[in-house]
Write a structure and sequence with these properties.
Helix content is 12%, strand content 40%. By secondary structure, it is mainly beta. Among the domains are: 29 residues; 218 residues, TolB, C-terminal domain (Neuraminidase). Strands 1-26-25-24 form a four-stranded antiparallel beta sheet, with no helix packed on it. The longest helix is centred in the N-terminal third of the chain and has 24 residues.
Length: 358
Amino acid sequence: MDSKSPFIFLTFFFVGSLVALALHIYFFSPISPQILHVPPSSLVKSFDTHLQEVTKLGEGLVKDPEDVCVDKHGILYTASRDGWIKRLHKNGSLEDWKWVNSSSLLGMTSIASGGLVICDTEEGLLKVDEDGITTLLSQFNGSKLWFADDVTEGKDGSLYFSIASTKFGLHNWYLDLLEAKPHGQLLKYNPQTNETTLLLDNLFFANGVALSADERYLLVCETFKFRCLKYWLQGELKGKTEVFIEDLPGGPDNINLAPDGSFWIALLQLTCKGMEFVHTSKIAKHLLATFPRMMNIVQGQHQRATVIKVSEDGKVLKRFDDPEGKVISFVTSAVEYDGNLYLGSLHANFVGKLPIDH
């Protein structure tokens, strides 16, 4: 046998394998990606450590509480991945309040009539109160309501809520990040008339929503654009949209109105340090989308926690961090009540509590 034959065989085998892999990725990739701009501010290391001082409420009794809210009686609510709506009373006791039998509960808000409205990414908008669980909205324009993310109530009872993605779901949301195209929506639901209105379309992973104190405008977070938009509900600019804050040092998740009229925003580190190049390479995006286990190498949400307080005119007033995720990471919501900040996280078995005035 020719001494070159093994070398030739290995060469053809290697090249053939690469071609086969490339064809597999090309034909079976679930995304059609575009380049994502990652702001330089998100790459700067923070040296603040205030979030390492959190008190762990209900430790071991909740699982990945994505959002928290407080009702008019000062009772704190959160949804656990085990399907329970938990509530924390002022005396510190934690109660298994209502069983929803869902692991896909995200944003929630307390409502004036009593109880909560919760976003279930698979079922739509749910109302939960002492009488039980009711599905408020499960369809829009003849299609199933998919990936409802966050919700807030206006003084007239209207519900404003976000759809993170109309293409991907909660359990493969990272594909929306890799594709980097606008599949999100902002909607309004009127419980009195049962009418649903599309306010904004083509949003880059529409996430947290919050009304201003006077309800003249509504804010919605675009996680993969590292910005929040302002949608005017009243006045001469009614129906218009403008940027509220941009180039954030992390992808904005939930946003909540503070008692002084400012806003608290939870920020996510979407990508591990040194892996940012993934968002500038369509080949890398296709590769990760086709072999999703590789996303564990890229995702950075578990490495840090950041929350910021932003004024009504879009200026950062405060910033709290756990820069290495030593105590808490993947913080997804921050709610201010009675001098404390209550924190939800998709990587915790507790609700964080932090005194605001240090």
